[in-house]
User: Fold Ribose-5-phosphate isomerase A from Microbaculum marinisediminis.
Amino acid sequence: MSADNQKRLAAERALTFVTSGMKLGLGTGSTAAHFVAGLGERVRKGHLDVVGVPTSEATHKLAVQHGVPLTTLDETPELDLTVDGADELDGSLRLVKGGGGALLREKIVAAASARMVVIADASKVVERLGAFPLPIEVIPFGQRATAIAIDKAARKLGLDPVLHLRMGAADAPFRTDSGNLIYDCDLSAIPDPEALADALSGIPGVVEHGLFIGLCSAAVIAGADEIRVMGK
Ligand code: 5RP
Assistant:
């Protein structure tokens, strides 16, 4: 079975966690897109009555296309459930996110939700985080100084980071929905995600990093022949 089919199956299973009246956070990426499409189908058929807060402009557009009623986090600051994808997750439900560049809004929305459920194909489950380069969102002002501070903070923890400024179209740096830049930080492995998260959060200029710790309560993982749920 293709990874995309696994993503779709995980999204469909997560739809069983949704009940009418829920205020939902809508994740970003190809897995979350399956969830938004399935949600829209159920809303259009009158099976579910929900509102969603999109975590990116792309998800906003997709949700509108699929007929999912939307609200904003300012109108609806407390959500019941966020369903989102991940680039990596470990056995403690610690995540690396931000491959799609939406980590800042994804983290704000997840933190405003009573529950966050990750949906993923089986390739996303890892023994140890870090093979996927960690996205770090920085403000454009002083971005090179911020990159040096990130490098130093990681080295202090015994890591050997390689930082790449993420590029977008036409040879220009990628800009997030909030107008910031992203450094993808290649670390090979992150032995102590909590320590790294703390160190990165303390750097002026770092807006947010892609380590999601203590936010995800369950994950629906679709493999070639089974769907399993980690956590509650
Ligand atoms: C976007 C994300 C995505 O959830 C993550 O990149 C997974 O994407 P996909 O579902 O396409 O594999 O964090 O910022």
Summary: The radius of gyration is 17 Å. The chain has six helices and 13 strands.
